[in-house]
Specification:
This protein is about 40% helix and about 20% strand. It has eleven helices and ten strands.
């Protein structure tokens, strides 16, 4: 198991077979095209750049199939540090019955992403795909999400698509894409040691304030 930072949303489409990818996607020596497509998609949690929030209660947004107890839901809300944020809105029951507007417009962008993260924790899947999930949130919320991933998803395979370097520098492997092609793939420290690597150039340019990521 591991975590990989990558750089194209087509990765999500390939994993979910939307459409069927050219070549093979292999997970734990299993070719995904041999699996039942519904079972495959049910085993993968996706946290997109624009969080999927629908007009219903907070509880239904977290557990649409009603498979979990209130205690389990509050546990994941605490893990993503949303419990204390939502507590002023009422009692535990009132908060779970809080109606969220379409698209989550009565929540902050950070709160919407944390709800998606809590939903992924409840799903308890072994593969998590973050598709530019932290692109529109502040640095502190990004760091908190990465902390939750390290602590609560240590036994999962987490693949993160990101342009923000800080989001992926602590991952096990980083894949850098240029014009849709893989140009390098290795441990972050190995790539950073190569001053002519794409990642190294991006990193030191960013550190010097010459580039914007």
């Amino acid at each position: 198991m591991g975590r990989t930072g990558a750089g194209k949303s087509s990765l999500v489409a390939a994993f979910l077979r939307m459409p069927e990818p050219q070549g093979e996607v292999v997970i734990d020596d299993v070719i995904t095209s041999t699996l039942n497509i519904r079972a495959l998609r049910a085993s993968v949690a996706v946290i997109p750049q624009r969080p999927f929030i629908f007009n219903d209660t907070l509880r239904r947004n977290l557990d649409p199939c009603e498979q979990h107890s209130d205690a389990e839901i509050w546990s994941v809300l605490e893990k993503v540090q949303l419990r204390s944020t939502l507590a002023p809105r009422g009692s535990l029951d009132e908060v779970l019955q809080l109606v969220i507007t379409e698209g989550g417009h009565n929540l902050s962008v950070g709160e919407r992403q944390l709800i998606c993260l809590a939903r992924a924790l409840l799903q308890n899947t072994k593969i998590i795909l973050l598709d530019e999930a932290t692109a529109n949130i502040d640095y502190l919320t990004d760091r908190m999400i990465q902390d939750v991933i390290r602590k609560e998803m240590s036994e999962c395979t987490v693949l993160t698509i990101a342009h923000r370097l800080d989001t992926v520098l602590e991952y096990d492997r980083i894949m850098v894409l240029e014009k849709g092609e893989i140009v390098e793939f290795d441990k972050p420290d190995i790539l950073l040691e190569k001053r002519d690597s794409f990642l190294s150039e991006l990193y030191f340019s960013f550190q010097a304030g010459k580039g914007k990521l």
